[in-house]
Amino acid sequence: MLKNTSRRNFLRGLSVISPLSYLSANAASINPKIIKTPDYFKALGVESFINAVGPYSSLGGAKMWPEVIEAMDYAITNKAKMNDLHNATGKRIAEMLGAEAAIVTSGATGAIIQGTAGCMTMGDSIKNERLPDTTGMKNEVIILKNQRYLYDRSIRAPGAILVEVNNLEELPNAINKKTAMLFYLLNRPDIENIDIETYIKIAKQYKIPIMCDAATTVPPIKRMAATIKYGFDLVCYSGGKGLRGPYSAGLLLGRKDLVEYAKQHGSPNHRAYGRSMKVAPEEYLGMMIAVETSLKYNEKAEFNRQRKAVKFMQAQLAIIPGITITINQPEFEASEPYIEIQWDKRYQITPKELKEKLRHGTPSIEIRALFLSQGNIHLTAVMLTMSEAQIVVQRINTILQKSLIES
User: Fold this and answer.
1) DSSP characters for 85-129?
2) Cα–Cα distance measured from residue 186 to residue 196, given in angstroms and rounded to the nearest whole number
3) What's the rounded Cα separation, in Å, for the pair 181 and 211?
4) Rounded CA gap, 407 and 182, in Å?
5) What tens-digit pLDDT sequence spans the chain (407 residues)?
6) Measuring CA to CA, how many Å separate 122 from each of 5, 91, 137, 271?
7) CB 7 within 8 A of CB 40
8) Residue 124: CB partners within 8 Å, gap ≥ 6?
């Protein structure tokens, strides 16, 4: 049964669900130039939504550059040997960003897993085969306690053990013969207890590789070169956020030997620990073109577009009595302005309740996760058109007014 499944059969099945969403065979035969893309989401019953957050993974990421889509289409129909493509795109990306070496990975998480594995095994083929069993090898990774986060499981995935330190003073005592790597989360710097350059200097002093997760720090893309220049041995990025490449891809940049060791743990190597984290040929090429296009893009114009939309939302909401609106811009994350909304006690509704009402309304509106916004309502314009921004503020106004009337 499985061998008879095809895209044609799939589309035939969808047409039964929603026959009006497809072009009839007769119309196509009369004018073969007519091409209509099926509304796959509608046929599947998948609802559209307004994204007032940004390129979150759970919301499908950013819209890819048209140049990226074109390059991916090329790689789908024109085949090359995977190792050749892997090496060539990595070399080109490294050249563009001023890194010693680079590889395309299965997202930033894949980059962390491969990079950690490389730092533990250091190219030893026997150790490579043993992962995730790291008994008897360097397998400890030092991380700042207040930089523990959702994705540090990816450090532990290949068998590493996390060792927490509170500050730089504790760092030398935590380093020992089992220390394989130091880790730093760039979008959550510990201003009070840590200085990036000193942290890196200590790593160099003890000759221990240091990896940086900079996944969400772009745009501006110039930050990538600046982060590399800090002196991190490895830096990882998400491909589908600020770079607007294929969402299932990412980048690992840095020291040539460590990038080579990391490469051993990924596809297309047959016995690699990360074999399951495959990167398709169109993703290799797509990430290269994403970097190239991002470097040429007018980021200032895009920032101004977002700023205009954010100021529009601020102005519309600020006229509501008892509402406080502030415009903010992240210091270490992607340069994306956002507004923060707070209200007084006359409105009998919590931020969580407002978030749920926005999510379950028509159309559905998604806003930033509250654990990331310290419990407040944040709105960005990264993914918003002006007309969508108007809908968002109207819905928030309506919800707040209802909570006021019902109080």
Assistant:
1) HHHHHHHHHHHHHT-SEEEEESHHHHHHHHHHHHHHHTT-HHHHH
2) 9
3) 7
4) 53
5) 334 444 344 334 444 444 333 334 444 444 556 668 899 988 999 989 999 998 888 888 899 999 999 999 999 999 999 999 999 999 999 999 999 999 999 999 999 999 999 999 999 999 999 999 999 999 999 999 989 998 999 999 999 999 999 999 999 999 999 999 999 999 765 555 578 999 999 999 999 999 999 998 999 998 999 999 999 999 999 999 999 999 999 999 999 999 999 999 998 988 899 889 999 999 999 999 999 999 999 999 999 999 999 999 999 999 999 999 999 887 767 788 999 999 999 999 999 999 999 999 999 999 988 877 788 899 999 999 999 999 999 999 999 999 986 54
6) 44, 20, 10, 16
7) no
8) none
> DSSP per residue over 14-77, as a string?
HHHH-GGGS--HHHHHH-TT------HHHHHTPPPEEESS-S-GGGT-PPPPHHHHHHHHHHHH
Q: For residue 237, what are the β-bridge partners?
A: 251
DSSP per-residue letters across 268-323: T-TT-TBTTS---HHHHHHHHHHHHHHHHS-HHHHHHHHHHHHHHHHHHHHTSTTE
Residue 246, Cα to own-chain centre: how many angstroms?
A: 10
3-state secondary structure at position 333: coil
Amino acid identity at 280 = A
DSSP lists the bridge partners of residue 161 as 140
**Rounded alpha-carbon distances, angstroms, from residue 273 to 81, 124, 157, 268:** 21, 13, 10, 11
Q: How far apart are CA 159 and CA 174, in angstroms?
A: 19
What domains, with CATH codes, occur in the chain? Answer: 8-39 (no CATH), 66-296 (3.40.640.10), 299-405 (3.90.1150.180)
Model's pTM, two decimal places? 0.85
Give the integer Cα–Cα distance in Å for 87 and 153. 28
Helix (H, G, I), strand (E, B) or coil at 183: strand
Q: Give the C-alpha separation, 391 to 187, whole Å.
A: 31
Q: For residue 29, count other CB atoms closer than 10 A to its CB.
A: 9
Cβ pair 206, 175 in contact under 8 A: yes
> Rounded CA gap, 178 and 160, in Å?
10
In sequence order, which residues have a C-beta less than 8 Å from that of residue 294 and are 6 or more positions away?
65, 218, 219, 221, 242, 243, 244
